[in-house]
Amino acid sequence: MDTFNIQLGNHETGVTRRDEDVFIVRLPEKTIYVEKRQDNEGANHWFEQGKDNETSLTANIGAAIENWLAKHNS
């Protein structure tokens, strides 16, 4: 499991990669699991595990995770 920090708003937020598409995100108020899913057109969407809708929070977390992965996995 990879552990890294992302910038979310004005805070460093800890993230642990649980598996290929599931990440544990330690927000100041709670810890959540976010999951990356692709739609039928190949676009990524980020959901809190167990929920069926992408929120602005999960979308922002997902974008920050994708940016970190792009910078560190090349």
How does this structure look, described?
The structure is a single chain. The chain has 74 residues and is an alpha+beta fold. It has one domain. Helix content is 23%, strand content 45%. It is built from one helix and five strands, in the order E-E-E-E-E-H.
In brief, what are we looking at here?
This protein is of the alpha+beta class. It has one helix at 56-72, and strands at residues 3-8, 11-19, 22-26, 31-38, 44-48.
Descriptive terms for the model:
5-stranded antiparallel beta sheet, 74 residues, globular, alpha+beta, 45% strand, 23% helix
Counting structural domains, the number is: 1
- Tally of separate helices: 1
Structural class: alpha+beta
Radius of gyration: 12 Å
SSE string, helices as H and strands as E: EEEEEH
- Helix content range: 10-25%
List the helices and strands and how they pair.
Elements: E1 3-8, E2 11-19, E3 22-26, E4 31-38, E5 44-48, H1 56-72
Antiparallel strand pairs: 1-2, 2-3, 3-4, 4-5
